Amino acid sequence: MKLTLEKIHIGRRTIKTVAAVVIAMLAAEYFGTTSSRLIFAMMGAMEAVRPTFKESVEAVLSQFIGIVVGALAAVLLHTLPIPDIVAAGIGILIVIVFYNMLKLPYSPSLACFIVVMICTTSDVHPVLYALGRIWDSAIGLAVGMLINVLVFPYDNSKKFRQAVQNLDAELILFLEDIFDGDNSLPDADIMEKKLADIAYQLSIFANQVLPFHKARQKEKLKLFRMCEGRARRLVSHLEVLCAMEVPGQLNDENLAELRKGGANIAEQPELSEWTDKDTITNYHVAQILALRKELLSIMM
Known about the structure:
Layout: H1 12-31, H2 37-48, H3 53-78, H4 84-102, H5 109-120, H6 126-150, H7 157-178, H8 189-206, H9 214-243, H10 252-260, H11 276-299
Helix pairs in contact: 1-2, 1-6, 2-6, 3-4, 3-5, 3-6, 4-5, 7-8, 7-9, 7-11, 8-9, 9-11
């Protein structure tokens, strides 16, 4: 398989990660305390650079809690007159039980690693190693967090807009499928997935911090929430149409609006009488078209 330059993508997060690691190692070189300070600083910096501010905070807390808990457990067990392997096993048990009791939403693997490292390495001073590991990792975590927040803060506005556009494009095809006259209705799960993508992008944007664009972010968040609400209502109307065994006939106004929006719908035969099913169908179609218009208007 040939690797071409076109296939190599170096994004902003990659650049931020490299910058955070280099700066963290430079800081650890001068202010670190352990022989492995560069490694600890590098690991901390890489963990802190996450797509959103919330994820970065969670990563920092996970690392810091893991190091502190593992170090405390190992230092206490190291004083007991028991074999190293036994001490490590007891320490792992204590760590896992502690995490489960407090229902910490983090993996205990790092804390267990610290326990094994301290308990099974004879030339490591437990207290000094624990304090040094905490300090050197803190350097990396702090640098990574600052870089992530201040340099190229992640902004997924374009991805949110793209998610809305994807839903709109699918909507036209979906309505064509409903009114193509074959009495086979499309699966509403398709639109649910598009809606889930919008909700996902909204949650990412809401959990981000743009320190130099707070006012703009607040305004965007308000608009995006409006969009998500309208998209949710739009999909609920589609689900009602899909729940009908056979949809009613479109009135002239809705038919014209659908065609204007790009839907390829053939001429429909004239009905001898208007039924309740036709009224219900056209009500929901009118609501869908109105919500679509509002959605696109907000995104302009």
